[in-house]
């Protein structure tokens, strides 16, 4: 046996580093296998390109993982090898469990969301584990846990094998040299951790190599994207800074309001009354593709009928702000589009300062109500609603336990039954704002209705559509509710069908109906959820200045535009329906007017979030 222990320590460190990288590469193959329908049409060379372009990020993660073992190996000449081996096994056991969880969660979540694991999933799970898992059927949860155990065990036994084949040689000689060399190896790990020695540091853009976003996703390391998003959650001041603030506002002007011009008397002409009872119905996961009049399938037929009724305003080029409810609701109620990197609702210090249509209408004498059949505390929603001015809030705990029969709480039938008893046929001297948020058309699409469509998701949409349609018929048919304004809008992009482009899946309907409208018609102008707040203020004769990012859709001065985003992509739709997509994790696109508009608006949006955070 050799006297010098240094080569054995270097060989163990080297094998552990290579083993860590190998695990990251195999995780990519696992990811693509789990998401086989998304990747089966690619050639072998394309898939291997994805793996190769992600190697630098894999090396970065391996570097993070290996810092502690290398430091332990540096100290090992003064520690008995048995203790070192036990410490190693405990450390690699923890690493195996964590990385196994990350790999499995990333592969499973991608099938639902279409982007890599980031802080969003962690926040949802920490906020309410039960609701975070409610989208998945029980068999899938059990299979996921089994996969986690299997992957973690495989990772652990690989590292244990490496430790066993690289025994540390006991020697009292050259301890200092051994320690210095291992410390140097630890220091060298910061090169792959940092992403090299150039000015730029490792970020998700390192793995982007293709115009096909799915190949880029296959290249990304989920452990890195998770750590990166967790460490960049609140960095509003320095995020997406491309121009001076004045230049940013100038570039973003197609997406920003001019409230002096847009709070126009023409909007009031749409109304018979400036103080109607307002019912805002937020439809879980609906999209334009459920409505035949928007080129979709024959699914949401009641919604389609309401949209095309003579007295309804039907907005046909309307876009959802983002992909989750906690990002869509502030877009609707606060006129603030979702930030691609985080949910403003989860930042309590910001959520409580967001403007809200409830607060503005309370100032005009409105009573405010919010109805939701699920857990109102999920994603800090209760805090946001209370701070925003909602006085009367009904959620799952306000229903008997026997009514809380779905994974998301109370189904839409019971929810609207409660809303019927509270509002239909009831006349009051004080106008009211009532928001009703549905949930039955959410995964796993389990609804209390005889199957009317072969697809479970479509069947769930048919169920909610029928419930909402029946409720609106009752409301419109009751003389006591003649002075009602009903707004119907999905909470985020559509959940069905799944095989849609980035921009197309964000296309949703906006319908305004009710006896308080003077006349209706189809509105072809481009708009998005952030514009509901200013439009509602204009319809009710209010001031939209509290909503600095929201535009009055009905104003002649507004030619139309839309912005929407997901964690790795933002898009801008101009008045001519030209769509510009902007990948957020790759190098900035070549400058043109449309991309400058997107960059400028992202900068304005993040400066606005930062101003709220700093109490300005």
Task: Summarize the structure in short.
With 616 residues, the protein is of the alpha/beta class. The chain has 24 helices and eleven strands. The chain has helices spanning 6-34, 36-39, 44-53, 55-75, 81-113, 119-127, 129-132, 138-165, 175-188, 190-194, 213-219, 222-231, 245-252, 259-262, 265-268, 301-307, 325-334, 348-351, 357-362, 381-388, 412-423, 456-476, 532-539, 593-613; strands spanning 277-283, 313-319, 367-372, 392-394, 432-437, 484-490, 507-513, 521-528, 562-566, 569-573, 579-583.
Q: What's the arrangement of strands in the largest beta sheet?
A: 4-3-5-1-6-7-2-8
* Computed structural class: alpha/beta
> How far do the termini sit from each other?
69 Å
Largest sheet: 8 strands, mixed
Residue share in helices? Answer: 40-55%
Low-confidence stretches: none
Mean pLDDT: 87
Number of strands: 11
Question: Strand fraction band?
Answer: 5-15%
Radius of gyration, whole Å: 27 Å
Number of helices: 24
What is the approximate shape? Answer: elongated
